[in-house]
Amino acid sequence: MADENNRQLAASVLTAVNASGQHYGFGLPMIASENIISPMVRKATNSDLHGRYAEGLPGKRYYQGCDDFDDIESLGIKLAKQVFNANFVNIQSTSGTVSNIAALKALTKPGDKISAVSTADGGHISHARMGAVGLRGLDLHTYPWDEARMEPDVDAACAMIRDLEPKLALVGQSVFLFPTPLQEMADAAHEVGAKVMYDGAHVLGLIAGGQFQDPLREGADVMTGSSHKTFPGPQGGFMISDSDDEKFQRKLNSAIFPGTNSSYHLHHVAGKVVALAEFAEFGADYAADIITNAKAFGEAMAAEGFDVLAEERGYTASHQILTRHGGQDSGAGAKAAQLLEDAGIITNMNMLPGDTKALTPSGLRLGVQELTRVGMDVDEMGVVASLYARVLLNGEDPSSVKRDVQALKGEHQTVHYCFDQGPAYP
């Protein structure tokens, strides 16, 4: 007979799950690394595949019973090659960070020199000594940064690469407002025999939708990415290359399995494949609408009186904007994020150039990809900016603002840019 305490514990977890759905479903989720999935993707992920294994590649498995999944993964690889216009794609990785670890394993050895964007300038933690770069024991050097343009100082970065002669030049960020000056940096890297890795986790959907930049044509040897940010699928990752070198492709596959994955969450892979099919149909429109909304949101926030970074470049060319709320390391970003959550607006504090402490930064990083997915357009971006102003500039009681947040979000409860539109937050 079940212990009633354990049953109650399990029930309390389900209660919290439902509460989370309400929190996000009637709030404004604006964390730039998140998104929602379509009804068809949800069906694929909520399937028997969740407990199955398929180590290896289609047709070359270490387990029996994989014939049906071989069909799924083979279709996914074919679709991904089309969506990303690439000769090689591995869809097994369980996250963008795992994709990064695998790429570092394939392209470097411990002790090799590597260049990347610093976390203070917007680089991802996996690019840092605290993350995958440190895990691989690599000798990290960070690019000079152009704060006004919010990108690597291209001339200084190219000079650094030529002088340093790294084994790998890594580009891409977690704070990613504008395309990287990739062609110039890749040319410098290739001159000194370095490989070029582009972490497109945040902007992968914008890239695939033809709205950002084209890393594989601009010099990247490998592109990694997440399948659940601007690419609107389930949690997971991608490894992508345009190389037709079979030896190099085998090296990349081996870095995923057995290098960094054993079982690779087959239900999420099936969800990725459905998401790829939907993206092939709707992705270009979705990517374009995200960027239109982000630009409109940046302009609306500035008009309300917020300090929005990169004004001279139009604030953004991606799904993100950055706002500054106080002095260096002031913790103003953390305070702003809490006040906004009290009003039902879900954001994250973020370091800005000049900050040195991740827990007391001065800024917020804001993304519009999920609001776009539920049908909001440029008119709603202005309304959302006014809600921010009421909380952070006018000092209005967050509970009062929350009622208007819930009313706005109540009108946007359907997933768009997919085959079968349905509830966004079931």
In short:
The chain has 426 residues and is of the alpha/beta class. The protein is built from 14 helices and 17 strands.
The computed structural class is alpha/beta
Strand ordering within the main sheet: 4-12-11-10-9-5-6
Number of helices: 14
CATH topology assignment of the domain at 42-278: Aspartate Aminotransferase, domain 2
User: Low-confidence spans: pLDDT under 50, at least 5 residues?
Assistant: none
Strand content: 15-25%
The major sheet is characterized as: 7 strands, mixed
CATH architecture of the domain at 42-278: 3-Layer(aba) Sandwich
CATH superfamily of the domain at 42-278: Type I PLP-dependent aspartate aminotransferase-like (Major domain)
Computed Rg: 22 Å
Which percent range fits the helix content?
40-55%
Distance separating the two termini: 32 Å
Determine the mean pLDDT: 96
Number of strands: 17
CATH hierarchy class name of the domain at 42-278: Alpha Beta
The global form is: globular
Secondary structure layout:
Blueprint (H helix, E strand, L loop, with lengths): L3 H22 L2 E2 L9 H7 L10 E2 L2 E2 L5 H18 L3 E3 L5 H12 L5 E4 L15 H4 L3 E4 L2 E2 L4 E2 L1 H11 L3 E4 L10 H10 L3 E5 L4 H5 L13 E7 L3 E10 L4 H11 L9 H39 L2 E2 L11 E5 L7 H11 L2 E2 L1 E3 L12 E5 L1 H5 L4 H15 L5 H13 L16
Parallel strand pairs: 1-15, 5-6, 5-9, 9-10, 10-11
Antiparallel strand pairs: 2-3, 4-12, 7-8, 11-12, 13-14, 14-17, 16-17
Helix pairs in contact: 2-10, 3-10, 4-9, 6-7, 10-13, 13-14
